[in-house]
Amino acid sequence: MDPSLRELYQEVILDHSRHPRHFGPLDHATHKAEGYNPLCGDRVTVMLALDQDGRVADLKFEGRGCAISQASASMMTEMLAGRTLPEAQKLMDGFLHLVKGEDTKDLAADDREHLDVMAGISEFPMRVKCATLAWHTFKNALDEGKIEGASSSEAIGYKKGGAA
Q1: What is the pLDDT of residue 131?
Q2: For the segment 37-80, what is each residue's pLDDT rounded down to a tens digit?
Q3: Is 17 within the bounds of a domain?
Q4: In which domain, by residue range, is 76 found?
Q5: What is the CA angle 81-85-89, rounded to 5?
Q6: What is the pLDDT of residue 1?
Q7: What is the CATH number of the domain that holds 22?
Q8: Which residues, given as ranges, of the chain have pLDDT below 70?
Q9: Which residue in 132, 54, 44 sits closest to 88, CA to CA?
Q10: Number of structural domains, the chain?
Q11: How far apart are CA 49 and CA 27, in angstroms?
Q12: Alpha helices by DSSP H, 19-160
């Protein structure tokens, strides 16, 4: 990788880590899960609200951890908000392949462009878990984190990035 490109990617990661997007509680969440990486102590809670059409109407995270885990969570929330569940799954699969250094041909070009900042993680196997923690926690929230009594109708009126 070109040294100037690597430097730019590091700046993007640091920016997301220092100024995370979509950080904080999500009062109208329909799904929630917590993730923990015991190897380094990273912790993340992912909260999301699905609308009646099965779209990620809103998505936030809370937690503490290294720059890579925080930046990855921040980037994830930016990229998954507004997507359908199949679109979110495809993006998540592509990201997981990317940080493991595997083929990402199924990843859309514009998504690949945004996620390329994390491609260098594959060179550091111990950091892959840091980068994937929020993404796995998002999946766990969908699979096992339905909040009792929460309704997707509560998410209506919320658009990508917050209240309508």
Answers
A1: 93
A2: 998 899 999 999 999 998 999 999 999 999 999 999 999 999 99
A3: yes
A4: 3-156
A5: 95
A6: 57
A7: 3.90.1010.10
A8: 1-6, 8, 151-164
A9: 54
A10: 1
A11: 9
A12: 67-80, 85-99, 109-115, 125-144
